[in-house]
Amino acid sequence: MSKSLPSPLLSVPLSQFVVIDVQERLLPVIQDHQKIAASIRFLMDSAALLRVSTFVSEQYPKGLGPTVELLRNHSATVTTFEKLKFSAAEALTTNLSVMRIPPLEHRPSSAFGFSFTPEVISELKHSRCKVEQIVLAGIETHICVQQTALELFQMGYQVFVPADCVGSRNIDDHQWALQRMAHAGVIITTAEAIAFEWCERAGNASFKTLSRRVRDRDAERSTTSASRVP
Description:
This protein is 45% helix and 15% strand. The chain has 230 residues and is of the alpha/beta class. It has one domain: 3-Layer(aba) Sandwich (Rossmann fold).
């Protein structure tokens, strides 16, 4: 019998949501930053509603400031961690116990940091917790988001990136990063698609709440678009 392929759909018990570096001194220089922040907030609200755990990274907060207020003031339980590496993959897997990393003495040395040899990847796959799918949002698409996505994918995770929840200072960097990630095997999608995959079915209280939030989001986006028309 052939080995079954992983489901292309997100599942709440297998999912984790990670918001990368949406910080006060970085967000304002990102293309369409208000729209991106609003989409991330929508997905954070959806994750809280549907009980998907959320982690938030901050890249050198002493210099770039904390996570923006829109995302920081959230009623859901959010775990925040600091990092210096552009990729958040190692910080996630070590500090937040998404999976167990081999002891330091068993890690191969590398001039560029932690190297994922076939032996290490094999151990990671056999020792990880139940989380198999990671949704990444944040900035910048071509730096921290992309490096995190590619490393997590190399570890054996399914990685999902909602295109409307990531951004860069330069639109070309953003678009080419999405293309590169997709070519590597990362699933590019949207915030609303992710929310409804987590929800899975209609006819329950979560669906009704999510549907109301989607309508509110549509109305807000329509108002914003109308205000831009000369």
